[in-house]
Design brief:
Helix 3 runs parallel beside helix 6, helix 6 (about 115-135) crosses helix 7 (about 140-165) and helix 7 (about 140-165) packs antiparallel against helix 8 (about 170-190). By secondary structure, the protein is mostly helical. The protein contains eight helices and no strands. The mean pLDDT is about 95. The chain is globular.
Length: about 190
């Protein structure tokens, strides 16, 4: 059977989108190829027409998720600078729907045990987030702005992870608020937290 032009690319993109969402929600190891392909409406055997291995798919899914996340953070920054990034990243919906959120926050601990190429797919785009945050900080020494931007992103990511971990909704909300305050304090300058 002949497919129309672009069918293969569209199918690959659909698999990546589903995998990206499932990996962020359930974890890489918990997602099997058979169930993933079934969700995409495809057979298990069709997987290898698009990817050399599950690790190949993991890299594609992480890259896609990180790019989409960067685009959304860029939109938030364009609307309201660093405050827009903080509000976007630490909103309750981001906490409650990891499948739609930051792949670094959802998968960093698990991906740290994968091969270097896969780790780089997740880690390298963090540089883009740091650069975006640094651009939102007051003018000054570039090295100091970068240092503060790293601290701010680490604070945002850790806050989101802790908020997801908290079983008590009130505590989870308190963690989000505390993390936002800490990120704002880090933006204010050295020594402030």
């Amino acid at each position: 059977m002949r497919y129309e032009k672009g069918h293969r690319d569209a199918t690959r993109a659909r698999i990546i989108e589903i995998a990206s969402r499932r990996f962020r929600r359930d974890g890489v190891e918990a997602v099997g190829i058979a169930s993933l392909m079934a969700e995409a409406g495809l057979t298990h055997g069709g997987f290898y027409a698009h990817f050399a291995s599950k690790e190949d798919l993991v890299r594609a899914a992480l890259g896609d998720a990180m790019q989409r996340g960067q685009d959304r953070l860029g939109e938030a920054a364009a609307q309201d600078g660093l405050e827009g990034i903080i509000r976007y990243y630490l909103r309750p919906r981001h906490r409650d729907e990891p499948e739609r959120g930051c792949a670094a926050a959802s998968l960093a601990a698990e991906v740290a045990r994968h091969p270097e190429a896969t780790r780089s797919t997740l880690a390298d785009p963090v540089e883009d987030r740091v650069a975006l945050i640094a651009e939102c900080l007051p003018a000054g020494d570039p090295a100091e702005r970068r240092r503060r931007a790293i601290g701010i992103f680490a604070s945002l990511m850790g806050t989101l992870q802790l908020a997801r971990l908290a079983p008590d909704p009130a505590l989870s909300d308190e963690i989000l608020a505390g993390g936002a305050a800490a990120a704002r304090a880090l933006a204010g300058g050295a020594g402030q937290v």
